[in-house]
Amino acid sequence: MRKPRWLSWAGIAVCTLYLALTVWLVLDAQTNSDPKSAYILMELPVMLQTAALDVIDMRAWLSGKTWMTVYLLVVPPTLAVLYAAGAMLGSVLEQ
User: Fold this and answer.
1) pTM, rounded to two decimals
2) Would you tell me how many other CB atoms lie within 10 Å of the CB of residue 38?
3) Burial label, 74 (beta-carbon count in 10 A; 0-12, 13-18, 19+)
4) Which of 1, 33, 48, 94 is 20 to 30 A (C-alpha) from 61?
5) Cα separation of 9 and 90, whole Å?
6) CA triplet 54, 58, 60: central angle to 5 degrees?
7) Higher pLDDT, 88 or 95
8) C-alpha to C-alpha distance for 95 and 33, rounded to whole angstroms
9) SS (H, E, C) the chain
């Protein structure tokens, strides 16, 4: 079976790795009894994205939001960027 042209196995692999690490950190934060550790574990998967929002003065856009809202706003664009990066890497490696 031929894969569609728009499908990138490398992009899917990079996104899957990010999602697996995110799920692991969030589940670990939920089982952690120390509030500071739980906060750090919840922040790790979206830390770079929120830092990028801070650079362009949009960090206030996320202030006061729940973790669920932050994840719903930040993770989908992150997955799109990671898929594109994985697709580019995959196309370079195929040549």
Assistant:
1) 0.85
2) 17
3) buried
4) 33
5) 8
6) 95
7) 88
8) 49
9) CCCCCCCCHHHHHHHHHHHHHHHHHHHHHHHCCCHHHHHHHHHHHHHHHHHHHHHCCCHHHCCCCCHHHHHHHHHHHHHHHHHHHHHHHHHHHHC
